[in-house]
Amino acid sequence: MHTTFFSGGRHDRTANDRAEETLIAAWRADPAARFIPLWRGQHAFDRAGKEGGLRLLMPNRSAFPSPEAGLDRLPWTYLGRDAQGPIFSVDLDAHDAPLALLPPGAGPFEALRPLAPLLPDGEPALLAQARGMHHWRRTHRFCGSCGHALVPEQGGHRLSCDQGHLHFPRTDPVVIMLVRHGERALLARGVRFPPGNAISALAGFVEPGESAEEAVAREVFEEVGVRVRDVRYLASQPWPFPGSLMLGFHAEAEETALTIDASEIVHARWVTRQEVRDADPADFTIPDVTAIARLLIESWLEEA
Ligand SMILES: [Zn+2]
Fold first, then answer.
1. Residues 209, 214, 217, 220: is their CA dihedral positive or negative?
2. Residue 5: CB partners within 8 Å, gap ≥ 6?
């Protein structure tokens, strides 16, 4: 089994405790309870670690200025426990000056993507959980059945309205696939990629009423006009931008001629292993270790 980046959390989610409202409230009031602040997709980090290491900033309750006036008014989620006690996340999105609500010296808030590889094992998974939960909460403020306001329950893991409709956290499945033909593999640059020369495996959302393997075949044909067979699952990865589950595959192409869907793909090309190993960054780059596409490409490189 592959352990992918953003999985491998070291905390115990203790899901069976979530329904114990009194217990969760007591844990939240514990001076040692830790809180991970989230603000508009960004995070605060602690750089005081040894050897320039970076850690996620998760101050305990006693470090917050007047928690009753600040911390306790923020939307929160119970994430789980580790040997040091309970861990919660708090969402500061509604505040234009979030640092005022945090312990003195905290911050600044920074983007996750460039810093994620520097975090210690387990923390990327904790963040993936927190980001996914709060994204779901922010985008599900009203009941889809009756339109009434939703209220969090079960440590933030369930939302309910006054009509008794229940809503549960959402994860969107995405297939990502390295398409292969003989000695070559297909890498493409998507229209929504950040500026640069990055190319990667093809990917797309799974639709209702199809298996993940069927989604692989459909997406490859839609994006580059290639029929595939022998679709093989390799690994999965939580992808907290904002809340997907990536399902990684290899697939064999039946043909090499490409018909590019310009609404999805800027360009696509067949590359050999040697071309990937010797790639000049001015020509193309492949995704970093935080992306499951890297694992799909490296497992192909290791075959020869
Ligand atoms: Zn409702």
1. positive
2. 116, 117, 124, 237, 289, 290, 291, 292
- Residue ranges of the alpha helices (H) in 113-243? 123-138, 212-224
CB within 8 Å of 130: residues ≥ 6 apart: 36, 38, 77, 79, 89
**Each residue's pLDDT tens digit in the chain (304 positions)?**
778 999 999 999 999 999 999 999 999 999 999 999 999 999 999 887 656 678 999 999 999 988 988 999 999 999 999 999 999 999 999 999 999 999 988 889 999 998 999 999 999 999 999 999 999 999 999 999 999 999 999 999 999 999 999 999 999 999 999 999 999 999 999 999 999 999 999 999 999 999 999 999 999 999 999 999 999 999 999 999 989 999 999 999 999 999 999 999 999 999 999 999 999 999 999 999 999 999 999 999 999 8
At 60, list the tokens: 């305990």
How far apart are the CA of 157 and the centre of ligand 1, in A?
16
Cα–Cα distances in Å, from 76 out to 117, 141, 178?
Answer: 26, 14, 38
**How far apart, in whole angstroms, are the C-alpha atoms of residue 291 and residue 232?**
18
Q: How far is the CA of 144 from the centre of ligand 1 (A)?
A: 7
Task: Give me ligand 1 centre to Cα 36, in Å.
Answer: 30
Ligand 1 center from residue 233 Cα (angstroms): 38
Residue showing tokens 């495996």: 201
CA 71–ligand 1 middle distance (angstroms): 28
Q: What are the tokens at 63?
A: 């470090």
Give all domains of the chain, ordered by start, each with its CATH number.
Answer: 15-139 (3.90.79), 172-301 (3.90.79.10)
Are 187 and 220 in contact, with CB atoms under 8 Å apart? Answer: no
Query: Which sign, positive or negative, has the C-alpha torsion 142, 143, 148, 151?
Result: negative
Structure tokens at 180: 């292969």
Q: How far is the CA of 70 from the centre of ligand 1 (A)?
A: 29
Q: Rounded to the nearest whole angstrom, what is the distance from the C-alpha of residue 92 to the centroid of ligand 1?
A: 26
